[in-house]
């Protein structure tokens, strides 16, 4: 990846496999990383993520549980484009509707429902208001959850996927041509 990179761990550690992003960035932050790469555990603090992105990053890599119908532990690399932010959320409660679906448009600032798609919608609003530029590229490194019910700790298949997710993130950071979103959906 070129330019400044933010790797953002997303999820709630009190909801089982929803803590995948948090656990993955914790493991990733123990690795040696280039100076232009920042790894942050945002957990459920989506508003903080939106404001941090105003600091100017070329690439955003969201790491999150991502329910797409595969086997638990399956890793996905998704390139988020216009309208693709919804793919980044694994929770049944996806938060507020996209801006285009709400009367009057604009992002709703609700810190209790800041799913990745809501963060990206808020970011567009904040950038328009501040004259800043959102990341040029947004990727989601997701893992198919087995269980996102109340409970602390990842399921066995999701725990087993964390080291591979760290390897994938490192590969993307070091050489983005090694893994392309269309190439990936593996256990």
Describe this structure as you would to a colleague.
27% of the residues lie in helices and 19% in strands. The chain has 187 residues and is α/β, with parallel strands linked by helices. Strands 2-1-3-5-4-6 form a six-stranded mixed β-sheet, with helices on both faces. Strand 1 (5-10), helix 1 (20-28) and strand 2 form a beta-alpha-beta unit. Helix 1 (20-28) crosses helix 4 (156-174) and helix 2 packs parallel to helix 3 (116-130). It starts with a strand and ends with a strand.
Shape assignment: globular
How many helices does DSSP assign?
4
Oligomerization state of this entry? single chain
What percentage of the residues does DSSP assign to strands (E)? 15-25%
How far do the termini sit from each other?
A: 24 Å
Spell the H/E element sequence: EHEHEEHEHE
Taking all residues together, what is the mean pLDDT? Answer: 77
Residue share in helix:
25-40%
Report on the biggest sheet: 6 strands, mixed
Low-confidence stretches: 82-113
Number of strands: 6
Structural class: alpha/beta
| Rg result | 15 Å
Give the SSE map.
Layout: E1 5-10, H1 20-28, E2 37-43, H2 46-53, E3 59-65, E4 75-80, H3 116-130, E5 137-143, H4 156-174, E6 185-186
Parallel strand pairs: 1-2, 1-3, 3-5
Antiparallel strand pairs: 4-5, 4-6
Helix pairs in contact: 1-4, 2-3
List keywords for this structure.
187 residues, alpha/beta, 6-stranded mixed β-sheet, 4 helices, 6 strands, 19% strand
């Amino acid at each position: 990846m070129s330019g400044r990179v933010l790797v953002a761990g997303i999820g709630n550690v009190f909801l089982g496999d929803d803590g995948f992003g948090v656990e993955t960035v914790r493991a990733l932050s123990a690795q040696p990383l280039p100076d232009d790469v920042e790894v942050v555990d945002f957990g459920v603090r989506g508003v903080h993520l939106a404001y941090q992105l105003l600091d100017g990053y070329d690439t955003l890599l969201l790491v999150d549980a991502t329910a797409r119908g595969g086997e638990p532990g399956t890793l996905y690399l998704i390139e988020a484009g216009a309208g693709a932010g919804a793919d980044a959320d694994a929770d049944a409660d996806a938060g507020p509707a996209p801006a285009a679906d709400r009367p009057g448009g604009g992002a709703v600032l609700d810190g209790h429902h800041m799913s990745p798609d809501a963060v990206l919608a808020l970011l567009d609003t904040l950038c328009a208001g501040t004259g800043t530029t959102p990341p040029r590229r947004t990727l989601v490194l997701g893992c198919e959850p087995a269980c996102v019910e109340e409970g602390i700790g990842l399921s066995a298949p999701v725990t087993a996927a964390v080291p591979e997710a760290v390897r994938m993130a490192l590969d993307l950071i070091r050489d983005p041509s090694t893994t392309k979103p269309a190439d990936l959906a593996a256990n």
